[in-house]
Design a protein that fits this description.
This is WD40 repeat domain-containing protein. It comes from Plantimonas leprariae. InterPro entries: WD40/YVTN_repeat-like_dom_sf, WD40_rpt. The protein is mostly beta strands. The chain contains no helices and 30 strands. The protein is globular and about 55 Å long.
Length: about 325
């Protein structure tokens, strides 16, 4: 049976995961919490508060942006350092890229800072909402109003534009780089097949999609925003077009607020608005309870590299690590 090591913090958990095999939690108050070991450690990453937190998919580090205008890269409790600063402007989005690159957004501007310190900026007429790097090559995707932009920081060429009416608030490439998907302000996702710009609409959600996660081999994109985890198929050349999604972990009136696909297996951890966490297999929808519930919605989840432990955090500061091995 899975066991849960619980932790209690004061405030919203922006991110939960692992660095060097040890759990770490990023809180909205600007601190990073490292509970493992003999004595729990707190690192003040930002003065004022954390406004963005994301684990780097290219390197083992946690990237955060704050109200203090700083971008901070953290690899452990003894190594948390400023990577960039915007002055007084809040940093509302961060993403890790190849060879140590970091992208961040602040207001109408998206910035890429390379490991050697070189800066590449792109400014939009309206607010930049999110940034993400392609899985291969130095290519940045930018979510914006009425679509997305694709930017090659190493060149002087103008960004390619992908248009679709509405506010696009989050962005991600598929793991194979063939598709680009955005979360929208309305209760929907939108996508493009990048080789020809073909549109993909993913609708029917009763709530906004705030959490998503690609499956281990990129065959599915799991999403929140419904009473079940909605998994859109991306295995074929047409992605989810004209295909029904999987619906896993349906719980009546409960709403899914966070999802995290297992790093190796076709299985997803599903967090709900009542604090419950399920693990559900794709092939047969078999469910296992990882956490029975709590005081507030699950806000963040991440597996460790081996897929044995799951770190989670809630909106009220409840957090913990689920160990599948017990």
């Amino acid at each position: 049976m899975p066991t849960v090591a619980p932790y209690e913090y004061e405030g919203f958990v922006e991110a939960a995961g692992f660095l060097k095999g040890e759990p770490v939690f990023a809180l909205a108050d600007g601190t990073l919490r490292f509970p493992a070991g003999g004595e729990a450690q707190a690192v003040e990453a930002h003065r004022g508060g954390i406004t963005a937190a994301r684990f780097d998919g290219f390197a083992e580090r946690l990237l955060t942006g704050g109200e203090d205008g700083r971008v901070v890269a953290t690899t452990g409790p003894e190594d948390s350092r400023e990577f960039a600063s915007t002055g007084r402007r809040w940093v509302d989005g961060v993403a890790g890229g190849p060879n140590g690159a970091i992208a961040y957004r602040s207001g109408r501007k998206a910035t890429v800072r390379l490991a050697d310190g070189k800066i590449h900026e792109i400014e939009h007429p309206r607010t930049v909402e999110d940034v993400a790097f392609a899985p291969k090559g130095l290519r940045l995707a930018i979510a914006r109003y009425d679509g997305a932009s694709l930017f090659y920081p190493a060149t002087q060429s103008a960004p390619a534009q992908l248009e679709w009416k509405g506010a696009h608030t989050g962005i991600a490439f598929s793991p194979d780089g063939r598709f680009l998907v955005t979360r929208m302000q309305e209760n929907a996702l939108h996508g493009w097949r990048l080789d020809d710009g073909k549109h993909m609409r993913m609708t029917g959600y009763p709530a906004k999609v705030k959490s998503w996660s690609w499956s281990a081999r990129g065959r599915y994109l799991a999403t929140s925003g419904a009473p079940a985890a909605i998994l859109w198929p991306f295995a074929g050349k047409d992605g989810p077009m004209n295909k029904a999604p999987l619906e896993l972990g349906t719980r009546g009136n409960a709403m899914v607020t966070s999802v995290a696909c297992h790093p190796d297996e076709d299985m997803v951890a599903i967090g709900f608005n009542d604090g419950l966490i399920l693990a559900v297999r794709f092939v047969d929808s078999r469910e296992a309870v990882l956490r029975r519930g709590g005081q507030s919605p699950i806000a963040a989840m991440n597996w460790d590299k081996g897929g044995r432990r799951l770190a989670f955090g809630s909106e009220s500061g409840e957090a913990g690590v689920v160990d599948l091995a017990g």
